[in-house]
Amino acid sequence: MIERIREHKRAMTAKIRVVGFDLDDTLWEVEPVILRAEQALAGWFREAVPSFRYDRVHLRRIRDQVLETEPHLSGRLTELRRRILIGALEETSPDLKATTIADDAMKVFLEHRHRIEPYPGVAETLAELSRQYTLAALTNGNANIHRTDIGHHFDFSFSAEEIGAPKPHAALFEAALSHAGVEASEMVYVGDDPKLDIDAANRAGLKTIWIRRDLRQGEGETRPNETISQVTELPGALARLNRAD
């Protein structure tokens, strides 16, 4: 399937062949998504495990303990949250089936984690871009783009959790280049974080487009090829990059 997509899009005239996207705070605002998922999870615990109080302060303490002994979990957000829940449940009562409950709880959390609200114009812009480019999602977060309402626009995705190394490590970009069969110069990465997205992708040899939003201040150590404020400006930015090559 990916070979057919690749050959079809290589036949077009664009010099850029792959457009990679960060997800959280690039295609949607992540804070309200996480808050709603947390609320849904707390409600589920009240019904399913009345003896367990879903307390975020308590969970942060467990989180610190887990990361102290297993720092590699900082790049595996789903497993990290699962381990935190297991630890908190075990502290509540040794009689609870902590692992089973945590597994069920994570299903609830992830269901709501994927109920995202894209920024205005995102769906329409992705639909337009997908007719000319291969679209990829490359994220440090635990959102699976194919579980969202805009996932059908994407040809493939990789997360830091499955690759084993979060940005700014180059592993996500290297996986995408290998999967798509393109050179770094044929791919552009779009993100909101000047360090984890723009600096990291620049150092991997990709072109970069920075979506500069008010919620994230400052700049990175390198310069993006293009700077925009909304996803709807992407077609124009990509056209300028293609003309510049």
Features:
6 strands; 245 residues; Four Helix Bundle (Hemerythrin (Met), subunit A); 48% helix; alpha/beta; Rossmann fold; 6-stranded parallel beta sheet; single chain
Characterize this entry briefly.
The protein is an alpha/beta fold and 245 residues long. The chain is built from ten helices and six strands; from the N terminus they run H-E-H-H-H-H-H-E-E-H-H-E-H-E-E-H. It is elongated, with a radius of gyration of 20 Å.
Description:
- This protein is elongated.
- It is α/β, with parallel strands linked by helices.
- It has helices at 2-10, 30-48, 56-69, 77-92, 98-113, 122-129, 160-163, 171-180, 194-203, 234-244; strands at 18-21, 134-139, 156-159, 187-191, 207-211, 226-228.
- The protein has 2 domains: 2-28 and 118-244, 3-Layer(aba) Sandwich (Rossmann fold); 32-113, Four Helix Bundle (Hemerythrin (Met), subunit A).
- The protein has a 6-stranded parallel β-sheet with strand order 3-2-1-4-5-6, with helices on both faces.
- The protein contains 10 helices and 6 strands.
Question: What is the secondary structure topology, with strand pairs?
Answer:
Blueprint: H1 2-10, E1 18-21, H2 30-48, H3 56-69, H4 77-92, H5 98-113, H6 122-129, E2 134-139, E3 156-159, H7 160-163, H8 171-180, E4 187-191, H9 194-203, E5 207-211, E6 226-228, H10 234-244
Helix pairs in contact: 2-5, 3-4, 4-5
Low-pLDDT regions: 8-14
**Terminal residue distance:** 29 Å
The CATH superfamily name of the largest domain is: HAD superfamily/HAD-like
Which series of helices and strands comes N to C? HEHHHHHEEHHEHEEH
Q: Bin the helical content.
A: 40-55%
* Largest β sheet strand count, sense and barrel closure: 6 strands, parallel
State Rg.
20 Å
CATH structural class of the largest domain: Alpha Beta
Architecture of the largest domain, according to CATH? 3-Layer(aba) Sandwich
Structural class: alpha/beta
Strand content: 5-15%
Shape: elongated
Extended strand count: 6
CATH fold name of the largest domain, please? Rossmann fold
Number of domains: 2
Give the number of helices: 10
Average pLDDT number: 92
